[in-house]
Specification:
334 residues, alpha/beta, 9-stranded parallel sheet, 9 strands, globular, disordered N terminus
């Protein structure tokens, strides 16, 4: 029999469905909100003045308090975490006796701060001794002493061996002796490896053509971990922009060569020495170096500013290059 009250239950069923869908919709929104909350933080695409500690290393003055304390002041200036930047030091160059007499220096770094890692620039020979003598093992004892001292203090140190081999003033100048340089480099690496398996080895020419092509003295991928480049702002003709492009970026054995050479060998880049000073106060050079580091940050192991007045003024922390100093502090702070 047909009932006239049939539509009423249908309205009740429709109302229940509507309530069900509304509840499901609200639950879905809550679930999506929870998923978004737990998602990875969104990247802020706006530029940030923040440089990682690996770009903020330095070779600093010994001064009255020693290099470690001076480096701590440098680190605080740049607001980098304590012990996060590498210190650069040099393991003697004058004579073979220094290899034995200076064994205490790595220990001083360790005593003052065992957490600090150091880039040790180790000579490949000394004035008056041909590279062939080192290659033939006549000075293994001296390198054993240096390796032992550094391994005891900084077993994860970076060994920058025979750096700037393309400069004629270096005792290990490689021109016309490339085979001896390569053999000496490889022999010394074997000695150091006996004392620490965690050492990293940095092969580091000076930028530009210099006095001989640097790549002729490349010792081999099996004994090199980082391919470095030392680069300074020198006096050249032209505006800062023109000089940057002509003498640093696109020059033979300049920054682009360095990038491409390191990539071909599958090695990270490094910049153990860099700085302004020879040309004068040049914040443009500081900005361009910083931008180069940031652009290639995934392929750079470390960089260290030369904050010591050497053959020419390069120190940037003492106010002698105020524009460069101000910009450096801004760009290389965390």
């Amino acid at each position: 029999m047909f009932r006239t009250d049939r539509p009423a239950p249908r309205r009740r069923v429709g109302l229940k469905r509507l309530v069900f869908f509304l509840v499901a919709f609200v639950l879905s929104l809550l679930l999506l909100a929870r998923v978004d909350t737990n998602a990875a933080p969104r990247v802020n695409s706006s530029p940030v003045n923040s440089s990682p500690a690996k770009f903020a290393g330095a070779f600093v003055d010994w001064g009255p308090v020693g290099r470690e304390h001076t480096l701590q002041t440098w680190e605080k200036w740049l607001k980098q975490p304590p012990s996060s930047v590498v210190g650069v030091d040099f393991y003697g160059q004058a004579n073979w006796e220094d290899f034995h007499k200076l064994t205490w220096v790595p220990g001083i770094w360790k005593k003052l701060n065992p957490s600090r890692n150091v880039v040790w620039s180790v000579p490949l020979t000394v004035p008056g001794t041909p590279l062939a003598d080192v290659a033939n093992g006549l000075h293994d004892g001296e390198f054993e002493a240096a390796a032992r001292a550094i391994a005891d203090a900084q077993p994860r140190a970076i060994i920058r061996l025979g750096w700037e081999m393309n400069l004629s003033q270096m005792a290990w100048f490689a021109k016309d002796h490339e085979a001896d340089y390569i053999a000496a480099f490889r022999r010394v690496v074997r000695i150091f490896r006996r004392h620490s398996s965690e050492f990293k080895y940095d092969w580091c020419p000076g930028w530009g053509t210099q006095d001989t092509p640097a790549d002729l003295a490349y010792p081999g991928d099996d004994v090199v971990d980082y391919i470095g480049l030392d680069i300074y702002d020198f006096k050249h003709e032209g505006s800062p922009e023109e000089r940057w492009n002509a003498f640093y970026l696109k020059a033979p054995f300049g920054l682009e060569w360095h990038r491409d050479f390191a990539a071909r060998h599958g090695k990270p880049m490094s910049y153990p020495e860099w700085g302004v000073g020879n040309f004068g106060d040049n914040p443009y050079f500081i900005q361009q170096m910083h931008d180069w580091f940031v652009k290639h940050r995934n392929n750079i192991a470390y960089a260290a500013y030369f904050d010591v007045d050497g053959l020419w003024p390069t120190r940037i922390s003492n106010g002698q290059f105020p524009k460069s100093q101000k910009l450096f502090g801004k760009l290389f702070s965390r």
